[in-house]
Amino acid sequence: MRIAYYPDFIIGHRDNHLNKMIENDLHKQCPKQWYPMIIFLKKLEQMSENEWYDLLLVEQRKRHENRQIESLGNGMYEYRGKHNRECTIRIYFSVCGDIVSILDAESKTGGKTKINRARKRRKKTS
């Protein structure tokens, strides 16, 4: 699968505000959760579409609090880092064919969330 970042969605283009925020800001805010998140993104790049759907089936069978990937509806998904007192990394993305569109990301501490902004971005891109 190929990864593209909001707003330009140029595949393989790493000079993007969202990509820089994921690689720099999230690394500073949540270093313990950053490495597993990067490993997840690398694995996602190497997956086929069938492997992606198999992974979704496995995740849906897990209890809600143990899921790493949560379906948010309308083709949107959330990567959920392990819960931590300091912060929890969230990545909001959609999958269409073999393209993974990263819509937003955040270091979640408490109640603030960027999920609504990610949903608006998903509607703009569909």
The DSSP helix count reads 4
Give the CA-based shape: globular
Class by SSE composition: alpha+beta
Number of strands: 5
Gyration radius over CA: 14 Å
Taking pLDDT < 50 over at least 5 consecutive residues as the criterion, the unreliable ranges are none
Distance between the termini: 19 Å
Query: What is the helix/strand order?
Result: EHHHEEEEH
Largest sheet: 5 strands, mixed
Structure, explained:
By secondary structure, the protein is of the alpha+beta class. The protein has helices spanning 17-29, 31-46, 49-61, 115-125; strands at 2-5, 69-73, 76-80, 88-96, 99-108. 42% of the residues lie in helices and 26% in strands. The radius of gyration is 14 Å and the shape is globular. The two termini are 19 Å apart. The model has no long low-confidence stretch (mean pLDDT 85).
Topology:
Layout: E1 2-5, H1 17-29, H2 31-46, H3 49-61, E2 69-73, E3 76-80, E4 88-96, E5 99-108, H4 115-125
Parallel strand pairs: 1-5
Antiparallel strand pairs: 2-3, 3-4, 4-5
Helix pairs in contact: 1-2
Provide key terms for this protein.
single chain; 4 helices; 5 strands; globular; alpha+beta; 126 residues; five-stranded mixed beta sheet
